[in-house]
Amino acid sequence: MAKPKKEPRPKAETPKGFRDYFGAEVTTRAAMLNAIAGVYHRYGFDALESSAIETVEALGKFLPDVDRPNEGVFAWQDEDEKWLALRYDLTAPLARVYAQHRNDLPTPYRRYAMGPVWRNEKPGPGRFRQFYQCDADTVGTASMAADAEICAMLADALEEVGIPRGDYVVRVNNRKVLNGVLEVAGLLDPESPDKFVAERGIVLRAIDKLDRLGVEGVAALLGEGRKDASGDFTEGAGLSPGQVDSIIRFVHATQDIAQQVLRATMDKSLSAEIEQTATAESQRFGFSREKFTDAQLLWNKTALNHLGFLAEGSRVGAEGLAELEEIATLLAAQGYGPDRIVIDPSVVRGLGYYTGPVFEAELTFEILDEKGRPRQFGSVAGGGRYDDLVARFTGQQVPAVGVSIGVDRLLAALHAKGKIGSAERGPVVVTVMDRDRMADYQAMVGELRQAGIRAEVYLGNPKNFGNQMKYADRRGSPIAVICGGDEFAKGVVQIKDLILGAQIAENATVEEWKERPSQYEVPRAALVDKVRDILAEQS
Amino acid sequence: MAKPKKEPRPKAETPKGFRDYFGAEVTTRAAMLNAIAGVYHRYGFDALESSAIETVEALGKFLPDVDRPNEGVFAWQDEDEKWLALRYDLTAPLARVYAQHRNDLPTPYRRYAMGPVWRNEKPGPGRFRQFYQCDADTVGTASMAADAEICAMLADALEEVGIPRGDYVVRVNNRKVLNGVLEVAGLLDPESPDKFVAERGIVLRAIDKLDRLGVEGVAALLGEGRKDASGDFTEGAGLSPGQVDSIIRFVHATQDIAQQVLRATMDKSLSAEIEQTATAESQRFGFSREKFTDAQLLWNKTALNHLGFLAEGSRVGAEGLAELEEIATLLAAQGYGPDRIVIDPSVVRGLGYYTGPVFEAELTFEILDEKGRPRQFGSVAGGGRYDDLVARFTGQQVPAVGVSIGVDRLLAALHAKGKIGSAERGPVVVTVMDRDRMADYQAMVGELRQAGIRAEVYLGNPKNFGNQMKYADRRGSPIAVICGGDEFAKGVVQIKDLILGAQIAENATVEEWKERPSQYEVPRAALVDKVRDILAEQS
Description:
The structure is a homodimer of 539-residue chains.
Chain A: E1 21-22, H1 24-42, E2 46-49, E3 53-55, H2 56-59, E4 75-77, E5 83-86, H3 91-101, E6 109-118, E7 130-139, H4 144-161, E8 168-174, H5 175-184, H6 197-208, H7 210-222, E9 225-227, E10 233-235, H8 241-251, H9 253-266, H10 271-285, H11 294-310, H12 315-333, E11 341-343, E12 357-368, E13 374-386, H13 391-394, E14 400-406, H14 407-416, E15 428-430, H15 438-450, E16 455-457, H16 465-474, E17 479-482, H17 485-490, E18 492-497, H18 498-507, H19 510-515, E19 519-523, H20 527-538
Parallel strand pairs in A: 2-6, 8-11, 15-16, 15-17
Antiparallel strand pairs in A: 3-5, 4-5, 6-7, 7-14, 8-12, 9-10, 12-13, 13-14, 17-18, 18-19
């Protein structure tokens, strides 16, 4: 007789590029997002949760003449032939929501959103196809007060989750200043904005490589071209030496500003200017002179001067400078000085996307990289002003500004700073010595839970007591409760301090072991109190 | 010249069957889930978050020979031809996770999970294709202590979110008892379990219609058949009168138990039995006699007796009874009496799915339905024991028991009980009387936020003051701060109590209006204190 053909068993695995999150991984993220939501809420932002699925049309990925829409998103056809997709960020859905509900929403509309997004991209180490974003945006106002507010809120959010002041800085730049520099260099004609688009593209991509290539490498790419270490040659943009010089001076602006500030604070002859700035700011907004260092007091002023010099003669450049100055003033009025938020031309993020101010939160403490070398932690959040997303739906431009916090990066930073542990404390485990007394063990665990103490009865096979202790160990349990026939007869319980026990087992001499017992016998009625005492000692 | 063909604008709308959630809809759900997670955590359950996407294979929907897998899920083909799908519940992913990680997980593994799931089903009023689930399961133990624990945890969770004791009841039944009744009726042969499968199917479907057809309708369907009000005839299962009688006695069991309990509590001759029960229970677990009513004390005892009578002679029935009795004892030991958790044969949920105890949380208070008639709120959670899900992957049976809370139903119940409002309090709005003083307004709002008060500056066009007050109204703002040239000159601010203002505008006489001003002028330095005072008065 032929054997019946068996259905093969399914494989127990996540799809490629996805993973599971366990215990503390879930709860620490939730706690961090909750803390950030509290800050956003205090700033008047309202929660919004849109569904994970949008029409491909609304997301702005247009169908080419093939079976599937663009790479990059997870998409499929609905039963009525409509293409649906999982959201790839939280900004595209916001534009759709605002366009759809704008008559019912307040204007301006301040909203925050947090949740998973999905990218159909090649996964890599630490790069997953589902990850969290945490955004706040203000839609419907061109006021720089909205941009300033979001920078302040970002600083508050970082402090709220445990990044101390001094360990982060929010850097602010303005896309219009860069455009001004490009205009001065002859690479942007305000009368015909479509001219030199290709050249500007090369410039932007070159600037984006600053971290990797350094100033000289970028200069080579802007001019004749660049030969890398392997001898490969990349053709350059062919700009004139004067054009290259203008752009390099912008690329180098942050270092130049730093030098000017340093010189000024060291040069006695300039101390009058510092005093004047300090006096003016402190009078206007009630700061104490001692709040900031001389360098901090001078920084934004120097940066604005220097950028004005680089973009001199460009109307859009001047506009960008005025916006930066307004942001700095509004922030100073709320007490956010350059110790927290600084003007910094080196911020060049999302250049193709933003239309005005751009900003980035950087963590300034050092961590060791995978090769043990110290390096700055780097960026954990960024954002800026964008004006065209809602217009896709309505035809009307709606100015908007927003920020997105990189949830996984910020969590990694908090781990690096020791602000969150990798494992949470497990439950108190009530072990089972006599299967027939399960009701009594349940009564114990019930009392502990009523008292707000995380606790559980061992529910596996109780035969082997060693397995119960191994289970408690795997659970990270702080305490085991033990009660067998003798204890029931005497009306007592044994309470074992597993953390102290582990310490003693590792380090203690026999004498210490005798002096510091890690197991206590207490009357049954004292169970909850004794457990509470031990937990308090442990923490 | 032909006009260039324009890309049509995308429609700003969610896909069919999806919706957006705003403000309090998001935060009240998050707060409720957070409270439930706290209870689950206290019981020793660990968080698990698996990704939204699973392989279709792992989810257990098998591909037919067509282009798309079964209806019911959102599924698509990955670039390597693998079918992926959005999870449709949280139990199928748990089985995959446990099979994949079982060597690293504790056994038993207690886990909770909360998040959206997706169903590719026809949407209807109040029925969406994305909704939340909130589950807790214990995998890897056959102990009834796990089932009892989940019932107790469910009761605790309901009280934690705001359903008071007395307004809910967790009903417990056991699938094995029903099998025992079917065995006694000759519809289940333990030696050949595949026999009578069709008949049992008809019986189960008939019992499931009890709510709609009543006992007589079910009896007709089990026997000769049933003619409905329109004259249509449904053929019956053709069971013998004796078989029909056995099953109807089971269907009717809850009412019969209720009558027996009622008789016993009214009948003086039975009061000795009540006293005996009360004394035994209170001695064993330290209850006070007054904790429960006579009816409550008798209920579980009577239910077990009655079910034992109905399933007499069946081994599996006896097993089910023993399990129910064990659950009741374990719960009593933790103080969960029949005021919260009762044995109730009327629970027939998910009959095809569960293998042992099944349970359901019902809210017992009345609400008005859409036609204004009072009706019981009904079920908000359910679960039971299932043993076959992990075996799909590993070939080894792994016993498991779990519960799922209907997040939207429970939220609706909390709304009905007035436990959560439909709108949250908006931010304090600092209005803008003089655009050039924006830095000063920002300073005010900065101080309020530093003091933990939700506040914002009006960021729209400030020209029309009426629009600012309309904005404050739409935001649900409790207070508006007003400061123009006069106020700046005098060093004061105007603080307007918008809630009192609205009350006065609606109800007050002119005298009252004069006596109870809703607007205050205070020194600028007193801004935060005065706002705090007004907020305290309002709440």
